[in-house]
Amino acid sequence: MFRFLRAVTTTQEEEKLRVFCFESRAHFDWLEAHGVPFARVAYKHKAVYTRTGEGL
Prior knowledge:
Low-confidence stretches: none
Number of strands: 0
Number of helices: 2
Structural class: mainly alpha
Helix content: 40-55%
Largest sheet: none
Oligomer: single chain
Mean pLDDT: 87
């Protein structure tokens, strides 16, 4: 994910991008542990943002 986002974004803050990519799973788990609900459904089409609640 890091290589992809680095290639397609214009951010100059590489360390923030690295943290986002490599710590996003732990952040997701933390959010769930604190009661944030997530649908366990994958969006199977190409999209940057979905409006249906599905995710990666």
